[in-house]
Amino acid sequence: LFESTNAERFTSLAAELGVPGAADEALAELRGGLERGETVDWVASRGEHISARVIAAAAGARFIETGQVLGIDSRGLPTPESYDRLAAVLAGDDLCLIPGYYGQGPDGRVKVFSRGGSDITGAVVARAAGATVYENWTDVSGFMMADPRLVPDARPMREVTYAELRELSYMGASVLHEEAIFPVKEAGIPINIRNTNAPQEPGTMIVPQREATETPVVGVAGKPSFSVIYLYKNLMNKELGFGRRVLGILESHGVSYEHTPTGIDSMSVVVADDELGDRADALREELVQSLHVEECSIASDLALVTVVGVGMAHQVGIAARCFGALAEAGVNVRMISQGVGELNIVVGVAREDFGPAVNALYHAFVKPLTA
Question: Which CATH number is 137-211's, of 3.40.1160.10, 2.40.100.10, 3.40.1190.20, 3.40.1050.10?
């Protein structure tokens, strides 16, 4: 199976690129690693490793072994020392090629980033090299202002800030591995998402700051799978530490929360369905017994939709446009959340209203390209 799949794929690639035999040494190392029982991470990293060695040979580039210069800590993040080590090996004017996806773990053995981790490697290398821009070439022409599966006429997003992208990616918009933002964000390096299959497209620029000119909103995103824990207790607002105790109980059950809209005698906690899992009954029981609430219910039919844009800050009428558009679409709003920074407005709607809500909010702010 090994000979007919992996070996043939890489030897064929090397031959097609005019460097026959460029993969032979790495393939021999892979065989040896499999025979001696190397770790799962080591084996998983070999695809990137062998491909990079073949491409380096074809491009006449200097191959740099990532596992010797890029450290990955116990949390799966690049270590601070990695930047200086990479900067040292990148010194000079020659062309360098570095495989992505993996590095060296705390135990000195190969460790891989989570899925999509090659984006992180690229960001770390860009920062170490002092790049003016980090170009990330993928199979799409950047981000869209909404999911085209929900909004077929969604426009491309030409510019977005790091903060806006963080909000959008957290709520489901995904092209770039979210942890790849932080290495370059700290250094103020913009990211340009480009399409390998359409190099003429400008893609999306991710920048520290932008001017909100055409529309105050940069994008609309959401997820349809949330639950709401509703608590009611008379004079709740007089009970010091009530909210802390609620969140402490969630923590003890290993449940992370998303939002906590409140009333004077009520508190709602929004959690993702995959966080809640099968813990609902045990969680409800402890909340009732520990907090002596008069009502505790858990509803699992909530979708969250967020409207994001730096241009929303201090602009009169943004909320009115949001809720007016939802009303026209016949969508009932069950929850509202907006931070003081006014970077986004989050609305909770019934799960069956998720698609109509995204559509309504998008078209409330974005004009069609033909308009």
Answer: 3.40.1160.10
